[in-house]
Amino acid sequence: MSVGMLLISVELFLMLCILLFIPGITQAVLIGFAIGESLGAAALRIAGGIFTKIADIGSDLMKIVFNIKEDDARNPGVIADCTGDNAGDSVGPSADGFETYGVTGVALISFILAVRAPAVQVQLLVWISSCAC
Prior knowledge:
By secondary structure, this protein is mostly helical. It contains four helices and no strands. Helix 1 runs parallel beside helix 3 (about 75-115), helix 2 runs antiparallel to helix 3 (about 75-115) and helix 3 runs antiparallel to helix 4 (about 120-130).
């Protein structure tokens, strides 16, 4: 959860930097940002699944080599298996939260940029930034 919140905070900071320092092509940059977030979330989801499967294979190999049950405390792969399952189970929701907040944030900022009054844009951006923190 802390990793997901760190990613979301960094992402919000980068979106605000994009708004401040790249004013001419902001919407195109933010669309690329959203695509990158989706790809990053997919990579995190796949990495969590791979880590879980590697730990499962290690536990199964120890079971075969030493002729002990998979959940036996003498099986050194049990700790790796539990760690892999926990890592896979925590990386997936972090990736989902990262993608959800990121793509939603890009959509909200794109909506705010469609508003023509600069004072209203500033108020909406401050509101989004304060609500996210």
